[in-house]
């Protein structure tokens, strides 16, 4: 409990009296797991310095402290663990790496950091699902939007570069499901809307010959998915960017500042994307790779 609540003095007192800090709870979670979960960096550092913890320690679900940091959005602990040279591709008992945990639980800051430090955006789990698949299935709207925005901007800028096919909205998992299939099956209408905004194809069938709307119907979510198709339910992140894009146009900004959703519409109509002054197509592609957003 001291590690969970960040009580450093209490933890030191327990250690001085010979308490076993390598003893787990009913789930096999050690103090370092709980500290990483709650982003108590001081506790993580204390446990490691005293030899009462290991970054490779696993709970009953084989999750490491890095998995817990990614799952709970504990950015400070996550950065520290990576800085110590811990392997970011370690898998838990479900076969998920920390980035996949972050995608599942909509922890965008952690995901972006991990993608800058050894994990690829097109990584797949044992079911062949990408980060975008996991985000769509679990309703992680912020993560899904970020992934689709960046991959689709790259696709537009590079005019069909293979990178888009590797991580785009219509890539299929091991069962032939797209992001749209998984969002529809789970009733994640906002993610489904985001999928549609970024070029989702409702005609694609999976291994069972089902389209996304077929899965929506069989799982009892047809009504809410139809609302997403009719734009009665929208992705809040897409909506926010659309409003910002409208404000920019009203203020006289040039079309080169269009947001991803608007760039896609231009791309669908086969209209050329305007290039910023002094930029080649290749330079724009590289610039769009992370959309100019710095990640420490």
Automatic annotation (TrEMBL):
The keyword Repeat applies. PROSITE patterns: ANK_REP_REGION, ANK_REPEAT. It comes from Octopus vulgaris (Common octopus). Keywords: ANK repeat, Receptor, Repeat. This is Transient receptor potential channel pyrexia isoform X1. PANTHER family: ANK_REP_REGION DOMAIN-CONTAINING PROTEIN, ANKYRIN REPEAT DOMAIN-CONTAINING PROTEIN 66. SUPFAM superfamilies: Ankyrin repeat. Coiled coil: none annotated. InterPro entries: Ank_Repeat/CDKN_Inhibitor, Ankyrin_rpt, Ankyrin_rpt-contain_sf. ANK repeats lie at residues 27-51, 61-93, 94-126.
């Amino acid at each position: 409990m001291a590690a969970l609540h960040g009580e450093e003095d209490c933890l030191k007192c327990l250690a001085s009296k010979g308490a076993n800090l390598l003893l787990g709870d009913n789930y096999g979670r050690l103090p370092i797991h709980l500290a990483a979960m709650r982003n108590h960096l001081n506790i993580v550092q204390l446990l490691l310095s005293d030899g009462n913890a290991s970054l490779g320690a696993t709970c009953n679900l084989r999750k490491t402290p890095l998995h817990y940091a990614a799952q709970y959005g504990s950015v400070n602990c996550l950065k520290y663990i990576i800085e110590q040279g811990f392997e970011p591709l370690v898998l838990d008992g479900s076969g998920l790496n920390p980035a996949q945990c972050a995608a599942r639980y909509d922890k965008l800051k952690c995901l972006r950091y991990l993608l800058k430090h050894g994990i690829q955006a097109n990584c797949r789990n044992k079911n062949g699902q990408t980060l975008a698949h996991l985000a769509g299935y679990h309703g992680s709207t912020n993560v899904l939007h970020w992934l689709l925005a960046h991959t689709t901007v790259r696709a537009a800028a590079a005019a069909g570069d293979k990178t888009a096919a590797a991580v785009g909205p219509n890539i299929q998992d091991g069962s032939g499901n797209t992001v749209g299939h998984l969002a529809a099956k789970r009733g994640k209408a906002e993610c489904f809307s985001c999928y549609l905004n970024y070029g989702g194809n409702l005609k694609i069938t999976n291994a069972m010959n089902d389209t996304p709307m077929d899965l929506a119907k069989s799982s009892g979510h047809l009504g809410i998915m139809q609302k997403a198709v009719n734009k009665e339910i929208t992705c809040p992140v897409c909506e926010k960017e659309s409003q910002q894009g409208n404000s920019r146009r009203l203020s006289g900004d040039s079309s080169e500042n269009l947001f991803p959703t608007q760039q896609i519409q231009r791309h669908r109509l086969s209209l050329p994307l305007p290039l910023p002054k002094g930029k080649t197509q290749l330079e724009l592609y590289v610039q769009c790779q992370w959309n100019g957003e710095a990640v420490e």
